[in-house]
Description:
By secondary structure, the protein is α/β, with parallel strands linked by helices. Helix content is 41%, strand content 12%. The chain contains 15 helices and 11 strands. Helix 2 (71-79) links the parallel strand 2 (56-60) and strand 3 (83-87). Residues 1-5 have low confidence and may be disordered.
Amino acid sequence: MPPSLQTSTTPTAEQLAQTKQAIAAYVATIDANPDRRSGAYPYYLFHEPGQTVHGTILMFHGFSAKPHQMWRLAEYLFQNRFNVYQATLAGHAFALPNKYWPQVDLKPELAEPLRRKVQQDPVLQNYFANLSANPSDRRPSATQRIALLARLLAIEPRLLDIMQAITRPDDPDFERYFISSHLDYLSEAKARLAELDALPGPVYTVGLSVGGAVALGLAATRPDRIDRVVAYAPLLKVDGEEHRQYVNMAGPLDIKELGWDPNLQFPVGALTAADRFGSSFVLNPKQTRTLQNIPTFLVLTENEDAADVKTNQTFFQEIGGNHQGHYSYLYPAQDLVPHPMVDPTEVSQNMSNRFWQSLYQETFRFLTQGKVNLDNMSNLEQAADLPLVPAVQ
Length: 393
């Protein structure tokens, strides 16, 4: 069982200065790149030297979003005696997703002939022309995805074997077919954690969606440094088998979609990499065994359109579930809580989280006490025994 006593630490001026210098060096590499993405810089909220804090939270935003996505949560935790470092996901500090974001690509000897077949197919070219004329429809519907899968298989039957090499975590043919940078999510997260080396006390990882998978994966790699994890709707597998098949088959074909940033198109292969990181790395038995001993708070919603709920529920049991001191909460469909559940002003599927203040409070309780009052998660009224969350101004 996780400890129930609150922990505290008091960073010195020198420790904070070393940490800020390390982060500044990273920011300088972003500044030096002409492809830097406006508003996607990491940032930190650190208390003054000599002030006692509960520890440091390393926070990861969702796929295609920016660190500012969870600024309200960061501010709440900072105001209640945490130091907070809002990191940028691997590659997301830059505005060319096909160049910088983790991606799964077919090897050139496979990709080029396949792309020629796609370019020569009049049906697919008509579809892509319509897609270009209607940019608001860049995320295909379920019907469109099924139709695209069928057409792609018709022009290249080998795609079925190629797709299976992605969906099977340990398939030896994966490296035969693909070039993949999905583990950049881990290496970049390790680099952000290293920037906190000078700070004393516990580190907690918190993340949303792909950021939730990164928070879990990093903790599984560094159990010596990370004490607890909070993962909101972690993307361990793309939601729905049909959607996942589309992502894994169409991903390497230069098809693009829109994400949470309406001004940014990303290749579907970037979603393939996100799925690959969750399914082949985080869900690897080695990682789940390690996570059994790192208290985890998993928050899910039935109104999911990105992260597969059943996969997350199975993962929760594999790390030991409630018996191992972990906590999980599933927002029922009638609560109308979407996948991006952290900020009350973020709308997805015409839904936003009205229970966000209780979510913040229980996140605080878990990080400070190692426990969660699950009954409070569905309350619109805040718990009196926890710091109050300010209303949206």
